Amino acid sequence: MPSAKPAARSDLRLLPRFAAWLDNQIETLYPGGFALVMATGVISNALFVEGSRAISDLFFLANALAFLWLAVLTVLRALRFPRALWSDLTNPRHVFSFFTLVASSSVFGESLDLRAFSAAAFDLWLFALAAWFALIYFSFAVLTFLNAEHGADVVHGGWLLAIVGTESLAVLGTAVAPATASIRPAVFVLAHMLWGVGIGLYAIYMTLFIQRIFFFKIGPDDLTPALWVIMGAAAISANAGSTLILTDTGTRFLQVMLPFIDGVTLSLWAWATLWIPVLLIFGVWKHHFRGIPLTYTPLLWSIVFPLGMYSVATQRLSLASSLSGLQDVSHAMLWIAVAAWAASTAALAVASWQSFREFSRGRRRAF
What we know:
Layout: H1 4-27, H2 35-50, H3 53-80, H4 82-89, H5 99-114, H6 118-145, H7 160-176, H8 184-215, H9 229-246, H10 252-255, H11 258-289, H12 301-321, H13 326-362
Helix pairs in contact: 2-3, 2-5, 2-12, 2-13, 3-4, 3-5, 5-6, 5-7, 6-7, 7-8, 7-9, 8-9, 9-11, 9-12, 11-12, 12-13
């Protein structure tokens, strides 16, 4: 009996410590945190298409909880720490990270559409589209008018997330269009337009990126996991192209574009494939030859999502091109993505516990 009282007191002390720690986490919430939802969602969708429905549903449930949790934290941050949120929005290094909200909404919307929740998927597409319109102009205004000489550059700015968000809207828009009745042709046209805009942005980005890494000094800090979005952006663009090819729009104007979409989609998939060994070389150079330890960072989800998206893009390209051999490539990459997801989830759990312990020790006197 006497031992129960100290334990109860310890539990009571733990609650305010946890509340204070959570408050700190909300204030410093990484604006690209929705990449976790993107990564989990794309794996769920890939498993669903492959027929692994039970495992897919587990990922779907985990993703729904993660999406809701991050949405609540974001709203609380806007209400309780508006200055911190505004600081990220007006920071050229961080503003493009907010496109993870667009992409995660679209990826989760696709999960809903696969499960026949078409109305909810369409609502999420409208939300993501509205967020995209707000962010696309705001982010480029921040980059144009607030970027200092040594501020965000093409390596650190996370600019490719704008492309991922754009292409995710094309994918989900194509999926929900058949159920939109009278506005169906307009949704299909907009999906094709967004696909083209994403490709244009990707061409601009890659020109700047190649110039940056070839003609300026690159250090270990420049090679972050976010660079995997180079491959992911190409993969989701190929995925969007394959989705357009596989969908009967019923509009002659769009049908005549198919030969162009065929060629560009294959080229984008090839480009995504080309980058995988390069990105692996970057990682080996940074962590093995330069001795930088591999630790948890929210940017790790920027590796998981491209791996999962490459699997989905390869699977859809195999259907669009009738190249059945690509199914094996898709299957192999899917389970690599699942392994990366599991490792990142474990690292997140460990990092969260360590963060809480360090925070508690630092504030021990306050309690």
